[in-house]
Amino acid sequence: MNFSYQDALAYYGIAGAHPGSLDLTKRILQQEIITPNTRILDAGCGTGQTASYISKTFPCKVYAIDSHPEMIQRAKIRFIKERLPVSLYHAAMEKMPFRNQSFDIILAESSTAFSNITRAVSEYFRVLKRGGILLTIDMTAEPELHPAARHEIKQFYGVHAVLTEKEWVDIFRQAGFKTVTTLKTSTILDELSNFNQSGPEPEGSQKLIPYHPAADYMLKTHQKISLQYGSSLGYRAFRITKG
User: Fold this and answer.
1) Can you give the CATH number for the domain in which 99 is found?
2) How confident is the model at residue 18 (pLDDT cuts 50, 70, 90)?
3) Residue 86 in contact with residue 48, Cβ under 8 Å?
4) Burial letters for 107-145: b for 16+ Cβ neighbours within 10 Å, e otherwise?
5) Which of 9, 7, 3, 5 is nearest to 221 (CA)?
6) CA-based Rg of the chain, rounded to a whole angstrom?
7) How confident is the model over 152-184, as pLDDT tens digits?
8) Are 65 and 41 in contact, with CB atoms under 8 Å apart?
9) What's the pTM?
10) What is the chain written as a DSSP string?
11) What's the domain range around 34?
12) Pairwise CA distance, residues 70 & 164, whole Å
């Protein structure tokens, strides 16, 4: 079995690995109207950091879903420890166990790119209510990203595609979404200039986690790719509404 970048994040219990970190997510969520009747889905919840923040900050019902078994286990432990009423599901975003029009808001932080993008976006559309909001933060190819670099990035991260902003917007519209607004545009290089270049840190004490050669290699390679292609690889934060 190959050890993936997602496996490395799960092994070290890394939370908030997405561009912009939890701080960006907080700023985006603070612009939304969230009431006790609001149902929010954290799609690709990882260790549950964001779902935990939402549950503790807003008076709403929070759901979380992830397909990685170790991420699910870490999220479950977090929610139990923090005594949070988050409904957690171990399932793929391409085939979610929810009824049509179940949610008011879906949040996807650096998770859609790691799925079958077209299928996942179609599922987002299906489970969102009319007038519902999809908030995504995901890896984006800048126009100058060379095809060979795209191929290398796809191979390393195990993703189907590295999309440009226009390609992302086209997929959202093809799924049926009407209004697509870009909330933030940034390159990885810009992001690295504002944050520690050593990358995201594990939660808790790193000394308690045994060294894992494959996981360590994946994280170091991730840092190398981020630096090598930092000016031509970026991310977009989108706010998308369902008509």
Assistant:
1) 3.40.50.150
2) confident
3) yes
4) bbbbbbbbbbbeebbbbbbbbbeeebbbbbbbbbbbeeb
5) 5
6) 17
7) 999 999 999 999 999 999 999 999 999 999 999
8) yes
9) 0.92
10) -PPPHHHHHHHHTB---STTHHHHHHHHHTTS---TT-EEEEET-TTSHHHHHHHHHSSSEEEEEES-HHHHHHHHHHHHHTT---EEEE--TTS-S--TT-EEEEEEES-GGGS-HHHHHHHHHHHEEEEEEEEEEEEEE-TT--HHHHHHHHHHHT-S----HHHHHHHHHHTT--EEEEEEEEEHHHHHHHS-TT-PPBSS-GGGSPP-HHHHHHHHHHHHHHHHTTTTEEEEEEEEE--
11) 5-241
12) 30
Closest to 57 (Cα-Cα) out of 18, 102, 107, 98: 107
Tally Cβ neighbours within 10 Å of residue 149.
17
- AA letter at 8: A
**Do 7 and 41 touch, CB atoms closer than 8 A?**
no
CB atoms within 10 A of CB 237: 23
**Per the structure block, which two tokens stand in for 122?**
């179609």
Inter-CA distances, 54 with 62, 106, 145, 195, 232, Å: 7, 12, 35, 23, 32
What is the rounded CA–CA span in Å between residue 58 and residue 48? 15
Position 98, amino acid? F
Q: Above 80 in pLDDT, residue 53? A: yes
CB neighbour burial string for 152-172, b if at least 16 within 10 angstroms, e if fewer: ebeeebebebbbbbeebbebb
Parallel, antiparallel, or unpaired for β 87-90 and 39-43?
unpaired
- At residue 206, the pLDDT reads 45
By residue count, the chain amounts to 243
